[in-house]
Specification:
This protein is α+β, with helices and mostly antiparallel strands. The protein has two helices and eight strands, in the order E-E-E-E-H-E-E-E-E-H. A hairpin with a 2-residue loop joins strand 1 and strand 2.
Length: 127
């Protein structure tokens, strides 16, 4: 496997597709995977359970092995422990909780998004 990169300052920046957060992505056997993870597995070995690959330089698409290290995955709050929506504005209670593809969603926040989207559509700003 060949990974293309550009040298920029002290980093090797991945030259290819990126996800919405700025991390490099490649397709292996039809499955999208994070480039840093693939490099780590190829050069160092398998990732232990509960670990993820991060960079010491803070550049999200850096693929220089000297900049990569293992870090603990942050503990995700259990859904049952969440009391408020992601924005922290509305309490998860009663009729304000709805299930969507991505999991639990705040109904009030979703309705506000739908309202903003419909207003933009009326003005012809977006789909």
């Amino acid at each position: 496997m060949q990974i293309r990169y550009t040298k920029e300052k002290d980093c090797w920046r991945f030259f290819g597709a990126h996800d919405y957060r700025g991390y490099g992505r490649i397709s292996i056997d039809g499955k999208q995977q994070q480039v840093q993870r693939i490099i780590w597995q190829s050069l160092v070995g398998e990732l232990p359970a509960g670990k993820r690959v991060k960079t010491t330089c803070g550049t999200r698409d850096c693929v220089l092995i000297e900049h990569l290290y293992l870090a603990e995955k942050p503990e995700a709050k259990e859904r049952s422990e969440r009391t408020h929506c992601k924005a922290g504005l509305h309490e998860y209670s009663g009729n304000n909780v709805m299930q969507q593809k991505g999991g639990t969603t705040c109904r009030k926040c979703a309705e506000a998004r739908w309202k903003r989207r419909n207003e933009r559509r009326k003005c012809g700003l977006s789909k």
